[in-house]
Design goal:
The chain is 34% helix and 27% strand. With 409 residues, it is of the alpha/beta class. The protein binds adenosine-5'-diphosphate, aspartic acid and magnesium ion (MG).
């Protein structure tokens, strides 16, 4: 008998018919003799709808109250799925995050899981019941409801799998695995049979929303066997593996992209010690995370230009802060551009292959895309380009690196 944690995303529980189909799948696993814990998201569109209601009252809703509101989406689904299981003769109990002690910190809207007391879940499993847990939510030490950030049900599932030492955590979604890039942008994207944990972590952090980044981090920390697969069709999905040798000999695993970017530049600042700190200190104090940073080489007058990127949601605030700093520094000008995107190539094979970057730049040049910023690490290369080039850039790179022809195991 195996212990399996299955997570079903919003589309997979989008209406009653689909909830019945999920119940059928869960029942099949249980009838095989496996113990099954199911984690569910809110029905598709529901979290957005709830946020929309809150915003009709406050442009920036009080984070604590927003958590109370958003967590209701998942509570609806757990009850409906439990009923669906009972209706099929499969005993089940549903639980909110608080009921199964998913203890988090108090960072409302982006809380981190600290601990899970799985005793109650274990008792139910031993009694032969399926346990249905609300994803995306927890409770802090004061007893307040918290949520884990958008896409957070993935993290709930992996954390529960870690706490229970489950044999596998299965993430059921609307695609049948992890692809070489988002199939919505490049229909020729290919499914990967396996992807290394490191590559998945990079892809998630560089914008591939198929798994929430914290879910991948959790899987790495606790060595949770993780698989992404379709809730609509049968198949093996994609296994996130910890063995690098087990993946095919491709240099590039995939292409990630993020539309959530914005760029800020301050022109004509003194090229002297402390300036980077003077520019970025107030940004950090405003709780704004900075991603890429470029400082130009000083031209004649020991003056330089400084550019950095932030999340698009933070753009207006960052611009305001930077304008203040620019005045203090007597800078020449502040420029901002919220219409940029980041495209990244990811692959552990990059470590042992030279020339990937130049091939990437050539491929983008061939289709006339100007690169605005570049950043590299051991297993990724990212470029910032104008937003209008996102699809063209992703497709050009997909083609240039032969990702549509990848031989998958
Ligand atoms: P769920 O509601 O099940 O959590 P998500 O919308 O969060 O589903 O994640 C699935 C989506 O992730 C897919 O529909 C796909 O558009 C997107 N996606 C982005 N990058 C990739 C990728 N590399 N492989 C597969 N899907 C991807
Ligand atoms: N319902 C939440 C969201 O839409 C969590 C999730 O789906 O994972 O972000
Ligand atoms: Mg998701």
């Amino acid at each position: 008998m195996a212990l399996i944690v299955q997570k079903y995303g919003g589309t997979s529980v989008g209406d009653i018919e689909r909830i019945m189909a999920v119940a059928e799948r869960v029942k099949r696993w249980r009838d095989r003799g496996d113990a099954v814990v199911v984690v569910v998201s809110a029905m598709s569109g529901e979290t957005d709808r709830l946020i929309g209601l809150a915003r009709q009252i406050q442009a920036r809703p009080v984070p604590r109250e927003l958590d109370v509101l958003m967590s209701t989406g998942e509570q609806v689904t757990i009850a409906l799925l439990s009923m669906a299981l009972s209706a099929k003769g499969c005993p089940a109990h549903s639980y909110t995050g608080a009921q199964v002690h998913i203890l988090t910190d108090s960072a409302h809207n982006k809380a981190r899981i600290r601990d899970i007391d799985a005793a109650r879940v274990r008792a139910d499993l031993e009694a032969g019941r399926v346990v249905v847990v609300a994803g995306f939510q927890g409770i802090d030490e004061h007893g307040d409801i918290t949520t884990l950030g958008r896409g957070g049900s993935d993290t709930s599932a992996v954390a529960i799998a870690a706490a229970l030492q489950a044999d596998e955590c299965q993430i059921y979604t609307d695609v049948d695995g992890v692809y070489t890039t988002d199939p919505r942008v490049e229909p020729r994207a290919r499914k990967l049979a396996r992807v290394t944990f490191e590559e998945m972590l990079e892809m998630a952090s560089l914008g591939s929303k198929v798994l929430q980044i914290r879910a991948v981090e959790f899987a790495g920390k606790y060595r949770v066997p993780l698989r992404v697969l379709s809730s609509f069709k049968e198949g093996e999905g994609t296994l996130i593996t910890f063995e690098e040798d087990a993946v095919e000999d491709a240099k590039i695993a995939g292409i990630a992209f993020s539309r959530d970017e914005a760029k800020l530049t301050v022109l004509g600042v003194p090229d002297q010690p402390g300036v980077a700190h003077q520019i970025l200190g107030p940004i950090a104090d405003a709780n704004i995370e900075v991603d890429m940073i470029i400082q130009n080489v000083a031209a004649q007058e020991a003056m330089t230009d400084f550019t950095f990127t932030v999340h698009r949601n933070d753009y207006a605030r960052a611009l305001e802060v930077l304008e203040g700093t620019a005045q203090q520094l007597n800078a020449r000008q502040v420029l901002g551009d919220p219409q940029i995107v980041k495209i990244s190539l990811v692959g552990v094979g990059m470590r042992s292959h030279a020339g990937i970057a130049s091939r990437m730049f050539a491929a983008l040049a061939e289709v006339g895309i100007n690169i605005r910023m570049i950043s590299t690490s051991e297993i990724k290369i990212s470029v910032v380009v104008d937003e209008k080039y996102l699809e063209l850039g992703v497709r050009a790179l997909h083609e240039a690196f032969g990702l549509d022809r990848l031989e998958v195991a």
